[in-house]
């Protein structure tokens, strides 16, 4: 039996997850490390041993390598899942540049699976670029699919394809258990993804806006903490890249644009409220800015396909430095604050960061701010 040849372009958490899934199912998988300008094989054994790209990189395995062009030219399916690190208008330029590099070696009869959220109509641009670069016509000599991978390893329920045509082989590779993927038109898949993104952020922003009114401690204590205790900034910004992609793909004033921009403003507003709470904490405790250190604890996945968490962390750090000079972001939970003479305010941006702080720093004199909807504050 001839194995299906698959190449995944990008050493990303999301790309590795889908590559592992296909390797375990018996596909001949290569994954491309852009920084090393090479492709390495991903066998079922490796995929089962290493649950994520971080663990694989940490072990520094000596894997055989093949040139990127060779891996792509032999692939029946090319999954485009690189890490995107630019922000603002530079994102689109970076994506198009990497996409051009990825599709150049493709041969007739191959298929491209685009996994980065595009917003409305973004796939039409990708298809035009694909046809221009390869000289192959979509639907006849080459195939194109849209499979917007959600944050971390969540998988879409549907696959967008040109004219909604099905591909049983691809469906089998991406199926979760016995649950086959449904094929829809590319425009429909864009709409479904938009609905998922907007539904999540509309619900989130409702929580954030209502929680603004919980000012006194009695009210905060009466709020159902179970609903909010696991909701941290890390999870809140999940999919912010997707939301901004929707915003940049629409023009004019309409209800949908109003909802999208409202959600973006809601997230920006939360970051500003978090900063206000931190400043208020300084005032209540009569702390001088020169004698205070702020440590932002936010353990980040450096292999994530999206850079939205990094963008928010940089914004939070920059804005806090407008008020307090000594602000440092810690992207690894094992940081040490025991040797500072300043009063320390630690901002916990994820559940795991908060648990690590409360467990390992019990004897330290510090103020802990939970970056959750209620902006809860605890003093050691």
Concise synopsis of the structure shown:
This protein is α/β, with parallel strands linked by helices. It has helices at residues 13-24, 44-49, 53-59, 68-73, 90-103, 122-134, 168-174, 186-211, 217-222, 225-228, 233-236, 240-248, 255-284, 308-320, 351-360; strands spanning 5-9, 28-33, 38-42, 66-67, 77-80, 111-114, 143-146, 158-161, 182-185, 292-297, 327-330, 343-348, 366-370, 377-379. The protein is 44% helix and 16% strand.
Q: What's the order of the H and E elements?
A: EHEEHHEHEHEHEEHEHHHHHHEHEEHEE
Measured between the Cα atoms of the first and last residue, the distance is 63 Å
Class computed from helices, strands and strand pairing: alpha/beta
Widest sheet, order of strands: 4-3-2-1-5-6-7-8-9
Count of individual beta strands: 14
Helix-residue proportion: 40-55%
Low-pLDDT segments: none
Would you write up a description of this structure?
The protein has helices at 13-24, 44-49, 53-59, 68-73, 90-103, 122-134, 168-174, 186-211, 217-222, 225-228, 233-236, 240-248, 255-284, 308-320, 351-360; strands at residues 5-9, 28-33, 38-42, 66-67, 77-80, 111-114, 143-146, 158-161, 182-185, 292-297, 327-330, 343-348, 366-370, 377-379. The radius of gyration is 23 Å and the shape is globular. The protein is an alpha/beta fold. Helix 6 (122-134) links the parallel strand 6 (111-114) and strand 7. The protein is 44% helix and 16% strand. The model has no long low-confidence stretch (mean pLDDT 89). The strands form two sheets. The protein has a nine-stranded mixed beta sheet with strand order 4-3-2-1-5-6-7-8-9, sandwiched between helices. It has a five-stranded mixed beta sheet with strand order 11-10-12-13-14.
